Amino acid sequence: MTDNKSTIADISAGRGALVVLFMATMIDMIGFGIVIPFLTYLVEDLAADQGIKQVGLWVGLLMTSYSAAQFLFSPFWGSVSDKIGRRPVLMIGLVGNTVFFTMFGLANTLLIALAARFMAGVFNGNLAVARAYIGDVSTPSQLTTRMGLIGAAFGLGFTIGPFIGGELSNPAERWDIFVNTVFETYPYLLPCIAAGGLSLVSLIYAYFYLPESLPKSERSKGDSISWLTRINNSFKQSYSMLNRGIISTIIWATMLFIFGFTIMHAVFILYTGMPVTDGGLGYNEAQNGRIFAVIGISGILTQAFLMGPLSRYFGPARLLTLSCLLTGTGLVLIPYTQEEYALIQLVICAIIISIGSGVFQPASSTILTIFAKRDGLNLGIVMGAQESVSSFARILGPLTGGVVWTYTVSRDWPFDYHTAFHLCGVMMLLSAALSLKVQSYAKETTV
Asked: Structurally, how many domains does the chain consist of?
């Protein structure tokens, strides 16, 4: 039995399989970030055509629908992958990406745009399956490095998603070749096609190079059940993970970390774009983009080159605490940037944040996998619960940041424009406190 599993792991963890997992994860984050540069303009265009005035409401709905769909369907895909295997679920997700990214670019009403954005989130709810695949085919010594590969893809997708969305929007206004074409009628179609094209290439690559990682003998058994029943069962299974000792502690620590981190997504550009006379930096889009590029690139380098040595030196449990404290420090320092030293100070903050966040994701996934395997739990269900809760945090984070910013930006310190960043720090401290419990528990094991 052991020899058979070793053989499967050797085949499934080949370079081709890891490339597919990397691409699937990267596309997940490209899908999240690609709309950021042009979403407001798309909503304004469609709202004007339909006589709708609630532009802000529709921007909010479209921003949250993607993460909301991931939140709802991550446990579903994790459960399905435990039953039919990881490979078909990952390939279904890539097909859905290709279709619904393109549908979003062709949307001519807000309802169609909302439906396309939601469905793209539904089919991008399989990040947990990619992590479960890694767990299936990796030995304990390989887990951290391979989870780091997934994390690097996460960071790369977050880096290039907004870049693609911004650079390829409205191509008819930039390049004559696109004048009097479908791209002039649908000015945001090109970046969506680019994202869909990446997904299609990954699908073709997966067909040839992605073997199944979960043997039939280890898949969940059960009679055929309805889709609604499966959804209900998936939620029950995920809820059970939130009440399962150390597993739930790790998942809640992850939620608090992502909640604090995504608050920053809403308020960072609000702060840097605020006039210098009001305490901001007066930055434009290009300057903000460079800072986000630093965060993305630094995060990639962290997970590609630092994750392995750091894990061997500290261990994944201790890295959870250290990454929370490091990320929190960087987030809290952002609004204390001084105009004359703004660039260097923001770059330092960005590097601190990216190193902390780049370490947290693979460390939390690694330790969660180790405990799940030790307890004999289905990795699909466990990772699905983690990703579902993480998606919920991505929904709440930007909304919370926007609300806090709105109600504090014009007030006096300490409840002024610094407050939202302070809240980021509080969330990181709470996550660090939970990670200390994980660290204590891990001392009783070999983690």
From this structure: 2
